[in-house]
Prior knowledge:
The chain is of the alpha+beta class. Helix content is 27%, strand content 44%. It has ten helices and 20 strands. The longest helix is centred in the N-terminal third of the chain and has 37 residues, at 5-41. The chain starts with a helix and ends with a strand.
Amino acid sequence: MHSLRPQAIRLGQILTFATLVGACGVAAADAERLEADLRALFGEGGTLSLGEVSSGMLRSRVTAEDIVFEAEEGERLLIERYIVSGDYDAPDEVTLEGIRIEDSLTELALVNIERLVLGEPSRAVFPLHEGLAPEEVNVGSLAIDGIVLELASELAEELLFDTPLQSGEGRMTIEQVRGESLTHDAIGMLEITGVDGVAENLDEFGSGSFTLGSLRLDELTGIDTEGEEKLASLVLRDFVVEGRDLVGSLAMLEVDGDFDDGKGGVRLEELQVDLARMIELAPEEERTQMRMASNVLTNGSGELRLDAAFLGNWKDKGDHSVLVSDIQVDIVDALRLAFDISLPVQLPQGVSAAEAFADTEWLEVATLLGGDMYLSLSDQGLFARLATLGAATEGITEAEFVERARTQAQGLGMMLGPEAQAVLLGLVKLLEGTAERVEVRGTLPAESSVASYKSDPLGAAGKLNIKVETH
């Protein structure tokens, strides 16, 4: 047994040596492939220079360093390291470090990215000049850290196309971007966090600064076909903007666009608009009118605060569907609005309730099988201030202003019908302070259509069996 030990050791040495030789050959081949692929990637429209291209012997890893591409358009791309980890034909990760795009004449940085990692990409290098089949383009995960973007560049204009930042000037930084399941036509998840920017010429927003805590998209599909895009959900958190024409913040915006699960809608939480600050920034000749509007809306605080929810759900009853809508709007120290509607409907053949919710045009050709609606408007101080402002503007007392409003409501009611008159007189009660809430209830006939109400809007109120109450 002792005599076999040197032979076993020798055999192990031979196998180890053979393995290392084979690994070196594979590693060298991968290094050559990476260099060839990078040269093909940047083979048109400019010149490319590469530093060292090396591979690890004990780890499946190949690295290209000091990549510089001089584009004919006048931009320069620099990448400190391009690293492929794992099997070159099916990488575990592709990592790019130290990415910089700059103007080749001024050396002004247009984009800086600390690190970009593609998890389980379908290729080690995606060629820009070759036509790949859609199924050949996919990435399991995406991680980008430390992005700095100069907005006054053609690249930024392309990246931010069709947004207020498209024609802006300034700088935007993004702490990180994370993504999952990215293909040519869909994104499983994409989340952007830690956005901070200063910009000028932001269309209707003017100039100013903005921050964003996070923006997350889930299950975005159809992105390769215009008009076919679908988004399961969007959540935006902690958005703050301070510009020439808008100063405010939004704690959360949530959009549920996936109606296949029977529900969807939009929520707004803690939308705050700093009207006082906007008045200070406005042209002097506009400040008086803006201040009057601000005082009425905010009771003199100068801060408009709003929460809102626009929700819907549907239920399949076999021979028909029931569509339910729930709307809530709360403007702090002003008013509260609630609107609920429940509609049993017979949809056209082949149209699902989820499709009708996603595209309400389908309701135009649906048969309404009755249903009911409820509207509630509660005064939180706005109507009393409207009465005071109206009286002051017309140079009369508040009582005279209320009586004038009542007379106008009665006159309009004669033209629009008793149901409309009851609603208008309910609003007058809010003005004079004899009621705090107006409620409107309506019941649809056993069978009707949206088209019948649109063709005769004045007659619609009579068909809806409307009842108005004040409290």
